[in-house]
Structures are given as structure tokens and as C-alpha cells.
Amino acid sequence: MDAQHPFDDFRSLLEALPAADTPALAAARKRNSLLTKPEGALGRLEEIAMWLAAWSGRAPAVHRPMVAVFAGNHGIAEENISPFPTTVTQQMVGNFEKNGAAINQICATVDLSLKVFDLALDYPTGNITVEPALSERDCAATMAYGMESVAGGVDLLCLGEMGIGNTTIAAALCYGLYGGSAADWVGPGTGAEGEMLERKIAAVEKAVAFHKDHLSDPLELLRRLGGREFAAIAGAIIAARMQKVPVLLDGFAVTAAAAVLKAANPSAIDHCMIAHVSAEPGHLKLIQKLGKTPLLALGMRLGEGTGAALAASLVKSAAACHTGMATFEEAGVSGRV
Ligand SMILES: O=C(O)c1ccc[n+]([C@@H]2O[C@H](COP(=O)([O-])O)[C@@H](O)[C@H]2O)c1
Ligand SMILES: Cc1cc2nc[nH]c2cc1C
């Protein structure tokens, strides 16, 4: 028998992803049409409620929403492409644990649980300009770890990340997936400008040129150009699909991880919404490639899942309206003449 390849299980899962639940969607559409409002008057909140039904397989409801933040360190930081040192990744994980970060405050106000997963921060990935980020085994194990984050009855998963250098990695993934020029995908991240921005563009160019013969397979592209938080997020998105959990994607890095899955199977991220468009210029371009429309545009560029957590409040309201509103008949409100 052939030896198992570390990616075999993920390839099988990606080929056999569950489809949307059509009966649950039909039931939600029916109820939506009876509620006390002019048709379509709740705009995208109605779309969100239908999306929840289609991908959860139940009436739209959000009782156990969770933000998962995956933290990773990147060998590419050696190229001096971020204004911040990689030690900040671990320090921010400490800050999350002490409730000191923006994501803690948003989770508290929106009533979301928060889990932070630090991914071997003392062992940064390979510098992708000269070597793959991860071995096949490490990439597959990290995807599997990400899958485990979707447990305990979560019914809305908000994905976020923390990792100094990861806007360079996200740009490399996008350039590897979609081409164009490296400069199309590179932006300031936490504040790179001038020569640092030029180094960032050069690093992305060099990385994609170095791995150019291995980029047609999306999982291989992920392990060569990606990083641990990207692999874990890809795993979490797959697990959510299997467990009928709708997903909110945060900024540039999270969306780039999702894009890898869409390249493997065009329907792989149909259960995901783009929570917000970040100020990182590559994010909007990437969202357009994915054919999606973000829920929010607040000029944020923090990461940590902050945009996804804010969008979760919209998803909660959408579910509450769908479930709690009276029908025309119940309320004795006259319908259209
Ligand atoms: O969410 C975004 O689109 C976003 C845009 C710019 C920066 N970030 C965050 O900033 C870090 C990466 O920035 P950098 O400059 O080190 O590549 C990482 O921790 C991200 O969460 C996040
Ligand atoms: C301070 C800081 C906080 C962050 N949160 C997400 N990415 C970040 C990057 C920095 C530098």
C-alpha cells in the first residue's frame, strides 16, 4: 500500500464538503416572508438570516458564538518587513490573556467567547524567500489543530489572527494564487512605508519566484508560502463546514487562508461571510477575487478577529429579528393592499 501523504485526509474532506441545507433555507425564506416588515426591508440582515439557516441546517440562531484567534510567527520577519519585532506576537497573546486587547473589549460588549491559540511561537516558520514555510507534516498537523478549535457546540465561528509579518505572508499567498504583481498585494500592514514597503514587495516577489513550480496545488501553496495561523484557520474553516457552523472571516490574513481553500474547491468557503474590509489595500482586491461583499467597512486594520467580532453583533441581530419578530397575522398588522 502507498504511504499516506499528510494532506490526503484534507484532500478527501475538500472533495466531499456538505452542501447548503435546502429545506432549512426554504423554511427560513418562508418565515422571512411573513414577518412584520416590507419585503426586503431588513436588507442584508435578511441575507444573513438565510445564510445562517442554509449553513447551520436549522432555524437561524446564535447562542454560542466564539472568536478563535490563531497566533503564529514567521521566518520572513528576517527580511525586515514589519515595523514591529516578532516578540510582539507572544506579548500580544499575553495581552489577550489579561483582557488588555481590543478583541477582549469587543468580545465583552458583543457577548462572544474568545479562545486564543498560540502556534509554536518559539519556532517561527521557514523564511519563504529561501525555503518552504512548513513541512508537509507540520502543515497538516497545524490544520488538524485548527479543526479542533471548532468544538463544544459553537454555532457562529469568528476567525482572527495575530502574527508579526503576516501581511507579507498573506500578500505572497494572494500573489501565488492570483498573480498580477507583488505590489498589487503588498500594503503597509502595521505601518511599513518607504524602503520597508519596497523590501516587502521584493520579499513577496522573491518568495513566489522561488516556489513557482509548486503553486498549482493549493495545499502545497499553503505550506510553502503560508504560516501556522493560516494553516490552522484553513483547518477551522473546513471543520466548521463539516459541523454546520457558519463562519465570519476577519481581515487580510484570515481571508487569504480562506482563499487557499476556495482554490482547492470553489464552494469551500460558501459557509463563510467576509465580516469587514480592512484598510490593508490587498484585502479589498482579495474579497473581489472571492466574489464576496463585506458586511462592514470601518477602516480597521488591527486583526485579532476584531472586525469579525463586530460583525457577529449584526449576525446576532439578524437571527433575533428572524426568530423574535411577529408575523403580520400574529401582530394584526395589515399586509400590502
Ligand atoms: O486585519 C487586517 O487586515 C490587518 C491589516 C494590517 C495588520 N494586521 C495585523 O498586524 C499584524 C501583521 O502586520 P505586519 O505589518 O507585521 O505584517 C498581524 O498581527 C495582523 O493581525 C491586520
Ligand atoms: C500592538 C499590536 C497589536 C496587534 N494586534 C494584531 N496585530 C497587532 C500588531 C501589533 C503591533
From TrEMBL:
It holds the Pfam family DBI_PRT. It catalyses: 5,6-dimethylbenzimidazole + nicotinate beta-D-ribonucleotide = alpha-ribazole 5'-phosphate + nicotinate + H(+). InterPro entries: Nict_dMeBzImd_PRibTrfase, Nict_dMeBzImd_PRibTrfase_bact, Nict_dMeBzImd_PRibTrfase_N, Nict_dMeBzImd_PRibTrfase_sf. Its EC number is 2.4.2.21. GO terms for molecular function: nicotinate-nucleotide-dimethylbenzimidazole phosphoribosyltransferase activity. Pathway: Nucleoside biosynthesis; alpha-ribazole biosynthesis; alpha-ribazole from 5,6-dimethylbenzimidazole: step 1/2. The active site is at E304. It comes from the Bacteria. It is an enzyme of class 2 (transferase). Keywords: Cobalamin biosynthesis, Glycosyltransferase, Transferase. HAMAP family: CobT (MF_00230). Belongs to the CobT family. Catalyzes the synthesis of alpha-ribazole-5'-phosphate from nicotinate mononucleotide (NAMN) and 5,6-dimethylbenzimidazole (DMB). This is Nicotinate-nucleotide--dimethylbenzimidazole phosphoribosyltransferase.
